[in-house]
Structure formats: structure tokens, C-alpha cells
Automatic annotation (TrEMBL):
This is Uncharacterized protein. GO terms for cellular component: chloroplast membrane. It comes from the Eukaryota. Keywords: Membrane, Transmembrane, Transmembrane helix. The chain crosses the membrane at residues 125-142, 162-183, 195-211. InterPro entries: CPP1-like (IPR021788). PANTHER family: PROTEIN CHAPERONE-LIKE PROTEIN OF POR1, CHLOROPLASTIC (PTHR33372:SF2), PTHR33372. It holds the Pfam family CPP1-like.
Amino acid sequence: MEFATPVSRQCSRLGLAREASFEEVQDARNYLYETYKRHERSREAIELAYDSILQERMKVRHKYGFQPPRRGRKSDVQGDPLPTGIIGNIKERLEPSVPLPTIVNDGSIFIMMGLWAAWQTSTADPSLPVGAALCFSVWRLFDKRKKRAPESDLGRSPIWGAVGVTLFGLFLGSLVSWALVRVLPLPRIIRPDQAGLFIINIVMGLVCIFFK
């Protein structure tokens, strides 16, 4: 069963489908406003529906960027449908494309951090390399998010998302590390805790590079 979204209801009020173009929305608003120009409540409802549709279109455009018009209209800015389901939500949080230099440069840093942490655990506390990897991940994610939303206020600052994704990478890396160390046949010179720390850094690096 499908439930109508608020925007779908607002489109219905103007007699339009959700995928209507901007010109169609504007024409419908002008026609209905002229038709009900002597009825104040109807005019208010028309303006409310029109404003709600425009706000939703702008949110989608800011989030996904400008999408080529599907029906030959330059001002059709609805974009692709919002993702649904677990797979759709995961894809929506991934970078659409990552340049090879970014993969090589950032990946090399996380590999070095992983090797440093693995070596450090055999002689001392590995907190320093792990902390350095966390800080680098937060900084890289913050930089990407800041470029997408430079005018965000404190409550919606990119730093919170950067910290959240980094902690998710740490959690995911810990799970993957725990699972792989239990099943992989490690050489005698490599201890499970060394392999585990290296895997955690690699997973954190993958999350940092490929997540928005």
C-alpha cells in the first residue's frame, strides 16, 4: 500500500501529478488563483500548496544536484525519485564517483596508519595511530560535506555528520576485523590484534573515501 506524501497531496490540490514540471505547477497556481481570487481561504490554500511544492523541489535539487529534464523542460528541477529501502538509502549516502587520485592518496594514508597501529601494538599502546586515523577521517569527511553545504548553521554543521560517519566506520571496521581475524589463517609473525587494527583502519578508510 502506498501512502500519499505531503508533497503529493499539495500537487493534488493543484490538480497535478507529483512529477509535474515547474511550468505546469506555475500555470496551475496562476489559473486557480485567478479562478478563486474572490475567495480568501482558497487563495491561501493555493499559495500554501505552491510554496510547499517549490520548497520540496529546492530541497531535492540541493541534495542531488540539477538533474537533466526528463520531458525537455529546462526548469524541471525535480530530480530523481527519493531512494527507498535499505539499499537505496545506502546508495544515497555513497559518493556517485571518486577520483582515482583521491583513492590512491587517502587510501595510502589509511594503509600507513594501519601499518603504524599494527607495529605500535607490538611495542606500545596503539592509541596514537588509531586516534590519528580517526582525526584524519573526520577532517576529510568534514571537508567534503562543507563544500556541499557551506552555509550550514551550527545545528546542521557538517562536523556532526563527519563525526557520525567516522564512528560508523570505526564500528563497522571493528565488526569486520572481529569476523576476519577469527577465520583468516594468519602467519605466526602476525598476531590477531595486529591484523585486527590494520583491518579496522582499512575499513575506516573505505568508509571515509566512498561515503559522503
